[in-house]
Write a structure and sequence with these properties.
With 398 residues, the protein is of the alpha/beta class. It is built from 12 helices and 17 strands. Strands 1, 2, 3, 4, 5, 15, 16 and 17 form an 8-stranded mixed sheet that branches. A 4-stranded parallel sheet has the order 11-12-13-14. The protein has a 3-stranded parallel sheet with strand order 6-7-8. Helix 5 links the parallel strand 11 and strand 12. Bound molecules: zinc ion.
Length: 398
């Protein structure tokens, strides 16, 4: 097959490096095989990008494809059939890809329908992003997210719960280390799974070469998750200097999901968000931002993830999350790096996606404007390529 040559673009390669102009990206068999000066590009079918900016496809490291970002997504999911959830998840996956997000990590689905969706996309039955999925998050009895999780108590039961997820075919294991916002009757600051329980879970995941993620908001639960050897802390609302130092030593990632509480508070009770969710979100927002800034200053690896599916936190564009990361201290290039090479490393796909370089999958987006100056330029990609194939509904940039 002839190579595809994408010419005349400004390239942001995902590593945090400054944009480079006048380069061509050569794509063969779904992979980038060369990045060369336009004048030295080989002959072959050429797409003139006419000064558009070419970036790696974005990665959203925290989504819930089975949740619909309604005012009360938990109530909405409980009220619909599994078949309805599955169809909606497929539509959300398609919207996500069209918005330039070519890979997502799903951190809590519904009865594994997200695993069926993952397979349908891999098999080419439907278009959608690459999906890595955690299946049912493992939580304590009555713990946060028990309405979609696998409740387990004691290290042996937690071990069994993890083995069940592995048997179902998950890509990673999600643990619930603390309370959260969207579950009635639990508090974000309170620890839930114990250190011993999380150690058992991480051990089982490691034996199967799977990574782990912990929903962890309060300090005690975050510290225990890090001690247990978790790969990423999700939310990380109450970080401390000591925890951050421990995360740096252990190489633990942070996925802040800044838009999750922000969207809940912006929506509010009047829009139908449950009162407890609004109250708890409003109470933690300032600490959430403080923790994000602390992690950023100290150099913790921060991967972009929006928690899409939670109230008014819509599937599709990652820009609302990236805008908040910039508002709270990142440069646009740092935010782009968080959503590309850093997120790819977190997912264990750092040698396949998240960069524009020879050998990497040709998951690419072309946008108008200057995303290195204004992150919002990423909001409406003109073209999205998955493994070198342009998404059917996207038109070449003009
Ligand atoms: Zn979540």
């Amino acid at each position: 097959m002839d190579p595809l040559i994408l010419s005349g673009a400004q390239i942001i390669d995902g590593t945090g490096a400054e944009p480079v102009r006048g380069r061509s990206v050569v794509v063969e068999d779904g992979r980038v095989t060369a990045v060369v000066d336009d004048a030295r590009a080989p002959r072959g079918p050429r797409v003139d990008l006419d000064g558009a900016t070419l970036l790696p496809g974005l990665i959203n490291a925290h989504v819930h494809l089975c949740m619909g970002a309604e005012a009360d997504p938990v109530g909405a999911m409980k009220a619909e059939t599994l078949a309805a959830t599955t169809i909606k998840a497929l539509v959300r996956a398609r919207e996500t890809l069209a918005a330039g997000v070519t890979t997502v990590r799903d951190l809590g689905g519904r009865d594994y329908c997200e695993l069926a969706l993952r397979q349908a996309i891999r098999d080419g039955l439907v278009e959608g992003p690459r999906i890595l999925a955690a299946g049912r998050p493992v939580c304590m009895t009555g713990g946060h997210g028990h309405w979609l999780g696998r409740e387990a108590d004691g290290p042996d039961d937690v071990r069994r719960a993890v083995r069940e997820q592995l048997k179902a075919g998950v890509d990673l294991v999600k643990l619930i280390a603390t309370g959260g916002v969207l579950t009635a009757g639990v508090e974000p600051g309170a620890a839930q799974l114990t250190l011993e329980e999380m150690r058992a879970a991480v051990e089982e995941a490691r034996k199967a070469s799977r990574r782990t993620a912990a929903h962890a908001q309060g300090s005690e639960g975050i510290a225990d998750a890090v001690r247990a050897g978790i790969t990423s802390i999700e939310h990380g609302i109450f970080l401390t200097e000591e925890i951050v130092a421990r995360m740096l030593r252990a190489g633990t990632y942070l996925v802040p999901t800044l838009n999750a509480p922000a969207a809940i508070v912006a929506g509010g009770v009047a829009a139908g968000v449950p009162e407890y969710a609004v109250r708890k979100s409003a109470a933690v927002m300032a600490d959430h931002v403080k923790s994000f800034r602390l992690a950023l200053e100290r150099g913790v690896a921060i991967a972009a993830g929006s928690d899409a599916g939670t109230p008014f936190n819509r599937h599709g564009s990652l820009v609302p999350e990236l805008s908040l990361m910039v508002e709270h201290g990142m440069t646009p290039l740092q935010a782009i790096r968080s959503a590309t090479s850093v997120a790819a490393d977190l997912l264990g796909l750092g040698d396949l996606i998240g960069r524009i370089a020879p050998g990497y999958a040709a998951d690419l987006i072309a946008v108008r404007g200057e995303p290195a100056a204004r992150i919002e330029a990423l909001a409406h990609p003109a073209t999205v390529w998955v493994s070198g194939r342009a998404l059917s509904a996207s038109a070449p940039p003009r």
